[in-house]
Amino acid sequence: MKMSKVVTTDFTVFDNRVVRDATLSWKARGVFMYLWSLPDDWDFYETELVTHAKDGRDALRSALKELQVHGYLRRVRARDAQGRVLKSEWQLADHPLWATATPAAPEPVKPAVAAPAPGTPILLSPHAVSPELPSLDQGDEEEGAAPSTPVLATWCALWPAPNVVARRQLTAWLEQFQPELVQFAIETAGTYNVQANGALKYVGAILTGWAAQSVTTLPEAQRAVAMPRKKTGPRQQRTATRRREIIPKWAQHPASGAPAKTPPRQLTPQERAELQRRLARLGEPVSAKT
Residue ranges of region Disordered (predicted)? Predict the structure, then answer.
């Protein structure tokens, strides 16, 4: 059956040897073509690549391992003196550039059997320190690998390495803003001691505010941060609450119905004499008052 091709303008050019290499599975060839179609400055992460297909992470890892074994992919890592990963770089070739010959299996040799030497065998101490084993780095991507871009490096200097959601958001910001603006927004959030769980929201609020103020360059962003914040509402003056005593109306206007004061009652002569008699019993002199 004859096959006809429909050619479009958006295409990728690579050597036919990789797609016709019978030692590669269809899965490995498809992964290679997808990686080859991406830009040269693209940062590759397994956690990000696995989201572009439905095969899963195990299928992606086996395809990458297959490309490494056959020399189409090489992953180089730079480490510091403490052994921490500083940078991870993926190198692709459309022909088996880094293919290594598989060593032939050695022929089995029958060891010579000798009689054991007489004497007491030397036993190893259980407290002896085991020798340090060599690193078995097989090239699988580490989740905590430090990124190579300044934006991600600034993020990792303040908080843990961003997950897949945070990386997608950072990529979206880099498409909308200049990289130095995104980096300065992350640094600004760090000066306010923002926690890792709120870093993405805080940086997004900073960038949204700059976009509303038409901030497009780093000097403009620095001036916006240095400028004191303006209060959105009018200043509310606090007035002290004063307690006022309310006087009833009848007290303000005595003629309005308030009861009039009556003069004191005058004592009768009999009452006055009785009062003097009682006071005399107490032995106190009393002057009579009318």
Answer: 128-147, 222-290
Residue with tokens 């921490």: 84
Quickly tell me which residue has 């180089």 as its tokens: 76
Domain containing residue 67: 16-92
Note the pTM of the prediction, 2 decimals.
0.35
Give the total number of structural domains in the chain. 2
Residue with tokens 């002199």: 285
Residue 217 in any domain: the answer is yes
62 occurs within a structural domain: yes
Q: Is residue 20 part of a domain?
A: yes
